[in-house]
């Protein structure tokens, strides 16, 4: 140390050390300070690497901010999607589900116009309602709107609610029950009809045995002959509503106006996905009377049928057989059809009434 030799081999003159000690004791502002071990180490490294500037101790270089362009764009797109969902949720659903058009809201009153036309697209076994307005309709009983119940005539609000539910049960049992659609006798539906209503009971006794224009089960029930026609899938699309008012002698009168869409194919089809699919479309209007048992002979839980009417397209023409007979292939025709109807147009009344048999109309779309 007396020689002034540094640990790294550097040296200072005796005069510099003497001056350093003297000025340190005197507290001179510009007195040279002994380099720290860190500083000496930096000096040694710089001598070994000429041309490099020293890196300060406890110093750092500000990091260049990273541009997060990807996250910014993704966030902007997500915000736009949320805005579209908020402003037009029905169109967004159609975009992601492949629906042909926005799903309609539940029908609570007669519409003022027919649903818009869909792009002409061939139905398939996997998508039997493709290219049809029914693609966005509800399935089964969910498509039949039941109004809120209120007291009417001899019935309380709770009793009206039960009668409305049973009225819809009849529509399900007569137009949606899988066994009935395959040609079975609609026992559940018949059990809801007043057994003391003579004219209807006469119709039921003969309709299934010897169908005719006056006694045809299709007047009230939807049936297909299983040896000829096969339903496609497990879904029947529906759209319609129940309404009610007070009828004769204080009865609760319920009106049902419902359209059923049945996708069908040949019973002997190959099932390879190339089968021809036809949609039989039936619109029914039924007026049911829930009578006061003190004024009309009836049974609890049953109604009388005031009237029935239906329109059907792709259901077959000619003499009644008790079954819908959809036309396939070269049979696709409307025998003597001078009238064309849009089977999805629910803005007008049901036009066919009680007529049946050889009166046919041609569907403008199916």
Major beta sheet summary: 7 strands, mixed
Number of domains: 2
Tally of contiguous helical segments: 8
Helix content: 10-25%
Order of helices and strands: HHHHEEHHHHEEEEEEE
β-strand percent reads: 15-25%
Number of strands: 9
What is the molecular shape? elongated
Rg from C-alpha positions? 43 Å
> What ranges have pLDDT less than 50 throughout 5 or more consecutive residues?
53-68, 88-100, 353-358
| Overall mean confidence score, pLDDT | 80
Q: What structural class is derived from the secondary structure elements?
A: alpha+beta
For the record, give the distance between the C-alpha atoms at the N and C termini, rounded to a whole number.
109 Å
Entry summary:
The chain is α+β, with helices and mostly antiparallel strands and 366 residues long.
Description:
The protein has about 375 residues and is of the alpha+beta class. Helices cover about 25% and strands about 15% of the residues. The chain contains 8 helices and 9 strands. It is elongated. The termini are far apart. The model is unreliable at about 55-70, about 90-100 and about 355-360 (pLDDT under 50).
């Amino acid at each position: 140390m007396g020689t002034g030799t540094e640990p790294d081999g550097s040296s200072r003159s005796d005069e510099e050390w003497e001056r350093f000690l003297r000025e340190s004791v005197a507290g001179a502002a510009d007195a040279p300070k002994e380099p720290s071990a860190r500083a000496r180490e930096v000096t040694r490294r710089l001598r070994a690497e000429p041309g490099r500037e020293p890196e300060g101790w406890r110093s750092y270089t500000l990091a260049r901010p990273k541009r997060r362009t990807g996250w910014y764009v993704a966030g902007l797109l997500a915000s736009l999607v949320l805005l579209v969902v908020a402003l037009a949720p029905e169109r967004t659903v159609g975009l992601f589900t492949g629906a042909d058009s926005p799903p309609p809201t539940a029908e609570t009153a007669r519409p003022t116009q027919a649903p818009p036309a869909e792009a002409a697209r061939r139905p398939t076994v996997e998508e039997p309602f493709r290219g049809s307005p029914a693609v966005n309709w509800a399935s089964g009983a969910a498509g039949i709107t039941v109004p809120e119940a209120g007291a009417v005539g001899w019935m309380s609000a709770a009793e009206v609610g039960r009668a409305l539910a049973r009225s819809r049960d009849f529509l399900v049992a007569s137009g949606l029950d899988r066994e009935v659609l395959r040609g079975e006798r609609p026992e559940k539906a018949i059990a809801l009809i007043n057994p003391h209503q003579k004219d209807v009971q006469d119709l039921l006794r003969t309709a299934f045995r010897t169908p005719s224009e006056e006694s045809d089960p299709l007047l009230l029930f939807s049936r297909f002959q299983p040896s000829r026609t096969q339903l496609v899938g497990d879904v029947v699309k529906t759209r319609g509503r129940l309404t009610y008012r007070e009828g004769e002698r204080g009865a609760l009168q319920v009106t049902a106006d419902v359209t059923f869409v049945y996708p069908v194919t040949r019973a002997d089809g190959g099932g390879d996905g190339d089968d021809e699919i036809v949609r039989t479309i039936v619109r029914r209007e039924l007026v049911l009377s829930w009578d006061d048992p003190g004024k009309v002979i009836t049974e609890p839980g049953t109604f009388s049928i005031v009237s029935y009417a239906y329109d059907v397209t792709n259901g077959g023409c000619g003499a009644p057989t008790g079954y819908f007979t959809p036309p396939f292939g070269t049979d696709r025709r409307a025998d003597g059809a001078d009238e064309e109807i849009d089977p999805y147009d629910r803005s007008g009344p049901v036009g066919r009434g009680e007529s049946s048999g050889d009166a046919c109309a041609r569907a403008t779309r199916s």
